[in-house]
Amino acid sequence: MNGPYQGPQVLEITANAGVVQARQLVRALAQECRLSLVDQTKLITAASELARNTLIYGGGGTMTAAVIEDRGRRGVRLNFVDQGPGIPDVDLALTDGWTSGNGMGLGLSGSKRLVDDFVLDTVPGQGTTVTITKWGR
Fold first, then answer.
1. CA-CA distances (angstroms) from residue 69 to 75, 96, 135, 136?
2. Model confidence pLDDT, tens digit, residues 57-69
3. By three-state DSSP, how is residue 104 classified?
4. Shortest CA distance to 5 belongs to which of 71, 73, 68, 81?
5. What is the spatial distance between Cα 114 and Cα 130, in angstroms, rounded to a whole number?
6. CA 31 centroid distance within chain
7. Domain 9-135, classified CATH 3.30.565.10, yes or no
8. pTM assigned to the model
9. Which residues of 61-97 are buried (b: 16+ CB within 10 A; e: fewer)?
């Protein structure tokens, strides 16, 4: 990435290569926002888990990444969207320790703990959208 980040970027997540590209883009944006190394790692870990979920459970989808500003602080907002089967039991999916057995073991609840803002919108049979934000200090 050359120079400062310009506008939202959309990545297709339709294969493992998309998960790798998502991690690379998130790292670049986190550095652009001058997130601490610890916060970069948290955001990249959450993004990796959510990108993998988008691919495995959602059948593929997109990640939209943007640098945002609010009240003098900068952050990275990521939006993961799929048209998969949705999540039938959100409360269960957000329970600590619950896993379908195929992911990194973080699950949605682990991803939620790693970021500052976490919004899950899912409709069974219509897909899932997860939006996360990590703010710089």
1. 6, 31, 9, 10
2. 999 999 999 999 9
3. coil
4. 68
5. 14
6. 16
7. yes
8. 0.90
9. bbbebbbeeeeeebbbbbbbbbebbbbeeeeebbeee
